[in-house]
Amino acid sequence: MPTHVEAIIMFMSMFSSFDALSAESFGQKVGLSWTPTSKEGKVVDASKGALSALSNEETAKKGKVGNSTEPAADCNSTRTCDGRKQKKPQLRRPRFAPELDGVFCFETIVPYSCNKKTESNVNAQRCILGVKMYHHRHIYQTLRKYTNIALLGSNPTYANTQIPSKPFGFSPSTEESLASKLAFILQACPDPSVLKQGQQVHTQIILNGIRNMGLLGTRVLGVYVLCSSFEDAKKLFYQLDLSYASPWSWMIRGFTILGLFDFALLFYFKMLGFGTCPDKYTFPCVIKACGGLNSVQLGKSIHETIRLMGYEMDVFVGSSLIKFYADNGCIGDAHCLFDKMPVRDGVLWNVMLYGYVKCGYSDDVIGLFREMRNTEIRPNSVTYTSILSICTSEGMIKFGTQLHGLIVRSGLEMNSPVANTLLAMYAKCRCLFEARALFDAIPRTDLVSWNGMIGGYVQNGFMFEASDLFQKMISAGVKPDSITFASILPSISESANLELAKEIHCYVIRQGVPLDMFLKSALIDVYFKCKDVEMAHNLFNRNAEIDIVIFTAMISGYVLNGMNFSALEVFRRLLLERMMPNAVTLASVLPACAGLAALTLGKEVHGYILKKGLEGSCFLGSAISDMYSKCGRLDLAHQIFTRMSEKDSVCWNSMITSCSQNGKPEEAIQLFRQMGKEGAKYDCVSISAALSSCANLPALHYGKEIYCFMMRGSLTSDYFAESALIDMYAKCGNLNLARRVFDITQGKNEVSWNSIIAAYGNHGHLEESLDLFREMIKEGFQPDHVTFLAIISACGHSGKVEGGKYYFQCMTQEYGIKARMEHYSCMVDLFARAGRLNEAFEIIESMPFDPDAGVWGTLLGACRVHGDVELAELASKHLFEMDPQNSGYYVLLSNLQADAGKWDGVVKTRSMMKQRGVIKVPGYSWVEVNNATHMFVAADASHPQSSEIYLLLKNLLLELRREGYVPRLNVRSHPQTAPSPSKIIV
């Protein structure tokens, strides 16, 4: 098959040769003449032109075109209705004048045959020409690119020669046998042997002296076009009678096969300009070319031509138009034409069904299918495949099962496309037992069947079954393709088995499996999830074939590994490559903005999303809301959330988690209740976020309500929800209930063990925490970084410095777990609580990465307890640079300086706080009484029982003094504002 460039060169050369055809010879046959006009409509050349083309073989035979054995008529004259001869007008070549802008008018003079059929033909041609002028105005900009393609060229080279009679001894049966053989060849699959047969028939035609080939030549041309021998097709095309539509139709079909839709349309208009009337076999390819260029307007104008010519109701032309409209989203136009069709065969029904499927109108698809069943047309494999695809995408398992019964009754259950679509439907709807039963029942499973079953297992989380089936596929001798590997690689990502990922990558290279975009994206994803960032980066830069899916995989992978700057760099490169980021890409880059707290950049991305009208999607709206909440703008996050028209579980979970993590536990619980009222489905993330809010509030009664809900539902066996429940009971002070939940948990995992170990450690029960740690190892569970974080924290709360040091070394040396920022923060807290501030500072200096605000904040708090002003000022210097708007750091340093009597430092710290606009956030506390939570702020009088509360506190202070309590009198105050000892309020 010629390349795209070769086809263009061939196309240009065809017209340069075609322009050399004798205009006079052609005019004698079809009586065509064009008269150029100006833009005002005035005729430039006073001579009138004519257009009278014969559009069918019957009419052509009357005018000495084709294989007629009648004597030739006078080429320069014609007859009127009364039988008199008159001079036949000669064809003139159109002249392009710069001032005319390529506009022509066409005038029809008296045709040389005056019967009713020819008159009707002329009227049809008048309609065609009117529409053609309309087309010309719309595609003129395209035509001007090819100025050397004139409608009829100059310098004719073909002589207007008389067609010789047939040679002596030629048998008519030879022509019929050749025509029959060509018809058989056209029905065969195009391959080199078929091309060779066509060339042999063409040779026999030449050897038998058939000059005026007619039907034979058109069929040979069809063989050349179908076999992609366009050079032979071009040579033969010039030798045919071009007053017929068939040669043109075959050439238009050839350009459509090549994907050169613009040239196919240019050839169609060349045909109209030549004066040849298109037939019903021309328009399907022309409509397909319009669809290939996504030109709805041009397609509709050609539809008008079809309607005027009376081909609209033809089943082939009508099917092409319906498919064109459906593919371009004009489903209303498609249905309107479908309703007008007098005869609807199975192809037409399938085209209409496919159109509704592509547009996603599931209800209309089902309704149309039921209407089809009420007719005499029986659904076939294509019908069932289209309907089942809707059941797959919409999760309509009940209707899909009914369709399965119809398929069995029709005997199509073993048809490969139908069986594979059924299998995909069962897998998507989580009916894996039915999917596997169908897979095992298929007598001949092809590659699509294996891929569908493996993909079904992976999508539903059955990774072991997917791997086992993949091995059986290899053992069965079925060679996997790129889709197979793209389906199986997510199972490796789940287990983070880097060695297995590399083995599959080596197999792909060794077996020469095409590394297409989907497989490359899957490999990049598995390397990122296996923490091999370098390998993913190398694979990304391996070749220049990169699309938006690859870029999205790189951005997501960098975000997953905490490399947010790298993710933003890939996003910038994507924009420099002039690629349009889609919704998934934007949803992937927003977490990078959130991870860097880059609020300005996040707003820019949000603005781009609004500009493109993509904010309405659930997952993108959830990503925007999450970005704002992690950048500290919970108010903007809530606005985005409330504006979303549709909210799925992910949106609700994101907002509930954001409120819980940003110090708004009450709002989180309220959202959790509202989520249930609006019919959204709770999952483990919803339950975990709500329980975390109960733990932060704390609100034990809310937690118990959620636990009862878990018991009624199917969430009691979820590890994350049970771990959140253990953490909630522990933080609400009920360690016994936390241990009871842990003991009744079936199938404990590392998360469950970590939760109970941390619960005992936070309550100061170090020995119980260590006993649980040893039991965890005895049960065969490997401790992770969270486990050691809980142990070191427990040692810090119990003052066991040496124990904390031991488990820190055990984590890094014995288990090979790299210490993270939170581990170093715990070690700093471990030494700081014990008053060993210098060693805590040495831990900070020995860190392999820069400490964050949490580490310096821990040191500052310890300095406040132990009165180390010098080290506190050093820690504060770093904190004011990292988090300048946190009022707690300023207050801690100011109080510490005041305790030490450094009043200049106090004034300086307070002034710095005022200059930066930092407002002290008041601290508050709460208490739960009779399942009701009461919040208090310092000097708060908003509580309805505040007078009784303050009276009780005053009486309590008097009782404390009677018991020997003495207020701190060594609190140093500023000399000018120091109160007397009797006025000190404790």
Question: What does it look like?
Answer:
This protein has 986 residues and is mainly α. Helix content is 64%, strand content 2%. The protein contains 49 helices and six strands. The chain has a two-stranded antiparallel sheet. A two-stranded antiparallel sheet has the order 2-3. Helix 41 (785-798) runs parallel beside helix 43 (821-833). It starts with a helix and ends in a 24-residue tail after the last helix.
Q: Could you provide a short overview of the structure?
A:
Keywords: Repeat, Signal. The chain is mainly α and 986 residues long. The chain is built from 49 helices and six strands.
Total of helices: 49
Number of strands: 6
Residue runs with pLDDT of under 50 for 5 or more positions = 1-9, 15-132, 134-173, 976-986
Q: Please tell me the overall pLDDT.
A: 75
Specify the helix fraction band.
Answer: 55-70%
Describe the strand arrangement of the main beta sheet, using strand numbers: 1-4
Rounded to the nearest angstrom, the distance between the terminal CA atoms is 94 Å
Shape: elongated
Main sheet summary: 2 strands, antiparallel
Radius of gyration: 41 Å
Alpha-beta classification:
mainly alpha
Strand content: under 5%
Please give a handful of descriptors for the protein shown.
two-stranded antiparallel ribbon, 49 helices, disordered N terminus, RNA binding, disordered C terminus, mainly alpha
